[in-house]
Design brief:
alpha+beta; FAD/NAD(P)-binding domain; six-stranded mixed sheet; binds flavin-adenine dinucleotide
């Protein structure tokens, strides 16, 4: 086997430097440390002109926070960067009109407060992740247009990182330039061009929900009477309203509506993602809600619009042996259940575990003419990516399918009792928020080795003690009085972004 030293370098291209792309880069940096004798040259390409996140909030659940810690991004767990409310509950649900607490979620197995649901300004989380990625490896104004994969023979002379067994993958950018490497991780979000190259028929649909979001200085809501200290989710006639403190003295308000409900009214129609919205339209939507929500909407200084899109689960996440996807590019669930940031982090960790496992059983040819050396080429990449896919795709497919089913089966309660019943019987999402990516990877690995021990980890978690409890327990824990007033109302949508 003849190889030169360059075979020890694996050039990894990452399309997209959002949460998924940055956390993947951090994970691969860790992999380089863990596998002496192997060098990863990781390069990120993003279409953005500057490195910043949209001005919205993001919640990370225990699974994502635990993964941040594994990635070594401890600074994102610090109390000043995000907000965790005093009740130590993941979410508290209030009645739209009375403001009473109807129900709440609670943690099943999250004893450490730093792993309990935390709410960030997206820019703060993003910049913390950025601090762990060498700036010179991030290339801006590089909008991916498509991808070309060359097999071993055709790639002779093309020149990737040299570690891919001869084959290469090339990103073609809108500006006419390109970048070539051994493998490609598509982290270019919901409208991924990498995904489109390999699954051109995949489409996205409006979920019937458009989100209206704002982040602003918390001083603006300081004087609102009866404002809950904890993050709060109000469920109302047709829409919901979410509000929370964030880290670094920021605050967020989030509303939503279905454009189909409002023909002829302001706000009807499609918006571009992150387009500036009309704050008066937002205030009008909540004008007859309880005084706390109304005051929050009135205090909101500006809003931006986020039409929510989702698409069917993909049948495969591995393309041409050397390309895979992470984050929203891989699982097109939209903003459902505020899960995407945490899922992206877990994707990065599963990819790290898979590559580490395959690398550790595939030593690199060190040019010492020892025939027992093995190369790390397209077969090994494919094996690692398949392990990764088997760890992540079933889990995220369950979410995407539930999002699409929720939309199809959306029932609008016709009485206040039905609304309360719906609030109390909302789906238990612990299988998502406390998912253990490492345990799932271990089972996939054992299965690969023929032990057939993989059980449905998600199902097991759902069978655990119920995490939903009613107003009596909620008020006991939080000392929040329930209101006596009950009005007729309707609501919908178990799909939420917070
Ligand atoms: C309205 C809304 C609210 C949400 N709220 C939450 C929440 O509270 N909690 C939560 O966990 N998740 C939330 N999510 C989901 C979460 O934001 C994403 O799932 C998460 O950020 C995953 O990020 P990503 O890196 O995969 O994609 P993105 O964050 O979209 O990043 C993709 C990156 O790729 C770049 N890019 C895109 N196209 C190209 C291209 N052609 N070429 C090069 N670069 C490109 C973009 O500039 C961007 O930097 C929400 C989503 C929505 C829609």
């Amino acid at each position: 086997m003849s190889n030169d030293d360059t075979r020890k370098e694996i050039k990894v291209l990452i399309a997209g430097a959002g949460i998924a792309g940055l956390s993947t880069a951090i994970a691969l940096g860790r992999l380089a440390t863990d596998t002496p004798g192997l060098h990863f040259d990781v390069q990120l390409y993003d279409k953005a002109t500057e490195l910043r996140e949209i001005g919205a909030s993001i919640a990370l659940s225990p699974n994502g926070l635990r993964t941040l810690e594994r990635l070594g991004v401890d600074d994102a767990l610090a109390d000043d960067v995000s907000y965790r409310g005093p009740a130590a509950l993941p979410m508290i649900y209030h009645h739209w009109k009375t403001n009473e607490v109807v129900s709440a979620d609670r943690f099943v197995d999250v004893p450490d407060r730093k792993h309990q649901t935390a709410r960030f300004h997206r820019g703060h989380l993003h910049s913390t992740l950025l601090g762990h990625v060498p700036r010179e490896t991030i290339h801006l104004r590089k909008a991916v247009e498509s991808v070309v994969v060359r097999d071993d023979d055709a790639a002779n002379g093309v020149g990737g990182g040299g570690g891919g067994g001869g084959g290469t993958v090339t990103l073609l950018f809108q500006d006419g330039t390109s970048a070539t490497g051994d493998v490609l991780i598509g982290a270019d979000g919901l409208r991924s061009k990498v995904r489109r190259t390999f699954v051109p028929g995949h489409t996205l649909h409006h979920t019937g929900r458009t989100w209206i979001r704002s982040t602003f200085d918390a001083s603006l809501i300081r004087d609102i009477p009866n404002l809950p200290a904890d993050s709060a989710h109000w469920w109302g006639p047709r829409y919901t309203f979410f509000a929370s403190r964030l880290g670094r003295n920021m605050y967020t308000t989030v509303g939503n509506y279905d454009p189909e409900d409002l023909p002829g009214r302001r706000g009807h129609g499609e918006f571009r993602w992150d387009q500036e919205g009309d704050v008066n339209f937002f205030r009008d939507l909540y004008a007859d809600w309880n005084p706390v929500v109304k005051a929050l909407a009135d205090a909101t200084p500006h809003v931006r619009m986020y039409p929510n899109l989702a698409g069917e689960p993909l049948e495969s996440w591995v393309f041409e042996k050397r390309v895979t996807l992470v984050g929203d590019a891989a699982h097109t669930h939209g903003g459902a259940h505020a899960a995407g940031g945490s899922l992206a982090l877990d994707d990065a960790w599963a990819l790290y575990l898979s590559l580490k496992h395959v690398l550790s059983s595939s030593t690199i040819d060190d040019d010492d003419d020892d025939e027992s050396d093995k190369t790390f080429g397209s077969e090994e990449f494919e094996r690692a990516f398949t392990l990764y896919e088997n760890t992540r795709r079933p889990h995220t497919t369950r979410l995407v399918e539930s999002v699409l089913a929720t939309k199809a089966a959306a029932v609008v309660p016709s009485t206040d009792e039905e609304l309360r019943e719906k609030m109390n019987n909302r789906p238990n999402m612990t299988w998502l928020t406390e998912h253990d990516v490492e345990a799932t990877f271990a089972k996939v690995l054992e299965n690969e080795m023929g032990n057939n021990v993989v059980e449905d980890d998600d199902a097991r978690q759902v069978e655990r003690e119920s995490v939903i409890f009613d107003i009596r327990e909620a008020t006991t824990i939080m000392g929040i009085p329930g209101s006596e007033s009950v009005l007729d109302t309707t609501t919908e949508s178990a799909v939420m972004v917070k």
